[in-house]
Amino acid sequence: MNSHQQANRFTQKELQVIMSGGTRLENANPLIFQRSGDRLLTATDEDEDAADPIDDREIFDLIRSINDPEHPLSLEELNVVEQMRVNVNDEESTVSVEFTPTIPHCSMATLIGLSLKVKLLRSLPDRFKIDVHITPGTHASEDAVNKQLADKERVAAALENSQLLEVVNQCLSTRTM
């Protein structure tokens, strides 16, 4: 492995922080928010021949049920993701998602961002450029986390780690709401 490849991988310390969920609760008593209602489908939504551009609500529906790594709640229930912080430009093939950690020093922020990014990468056509970042001013290490999430090589390297991928998949697993 050359020095450039090493620089783009998460360090062992970063991986330990990302995967340390469950050892102690950083936010033992988070605020819980009411889930938004399910999207009502129209006849046009059901029409296989109609053009169906991807919109903010569709992206929100993909990410709202992602499990929080620390609590048995969804990211929506913790207000980590909100529809108003999702922006889609279907014509330009861009998706931008801002997420808000529950506390400013949340050590799970990178894992949450990685889970959001993986869910979108797995769900959207390859034509989309996906940007996942922390809501400005809501996390002490916002710049560092955003830099990691924006680095394609670093994200790819993180997902080659079987332990980390297992943790991400747990966040993405379906649970009854």
UniProtKB/TrEMBL annotation:
Any one GO cellular component localisation term in the record: cytosolic [4Fe-4S] assembly targeting complex
InterPro entries: FSCA_dom_sf, MIP18, MIP18-like
Swiss-Prot/TrEMBL GO biological process terms: chromosome segregation; protein maturation
Gene3D superfamilies (UniProt xref): 6.10.250.1280, Fe-S cluster assembly (FSCA)
Function: Component of the cytosolic iron-sulfur protein assembly (CIA) complex, a multiprotein complex that mediates the incorporation of iron-sulfur cluster into extramitochondrial Fe/S proteins. As a CIA complex component and in collaboration with CIAO1 and MMS19, binds to and facilitates the assembly of most cytosolic-nuclear Fe/S proteins. As part of the mitotic spindle-associated MMXD complex it plays a role in chromosome segregation, probably by facilitating iron-sulfur cluster assembly into ERCC2/XPD.
Assembly mode: Component of the CIA complex. Component of the MMXD complex, which includes CIAO1, ERCC2, CIAO2B, MMS19 and SLC25A5. Interacts with CIAO1, ERCC2 and MMS19; the interactions are direct. Interacts with KIF4A; the interaction facilitates the transfer of Fe-S clusters to KIF4A to ensure proper localization of KIF4A to the mitotic machinery. Interacts with CCDC117; the interaction is direct.
Entry-linked PANTHER family: CYTOSOLIC IRON-SULFUR ASSEMBLY COMPONENT 2B, CYTOSOLIC IRON-SULFUR ASSEMBLY COMPONENT 2B-RELATED
Designated name of the protein: Cytosolic iron-sulfur assembly component 2B
Originating species: Cyprinus carpio (Common carp)
Recorded name of the encoding gene: LOC109091524
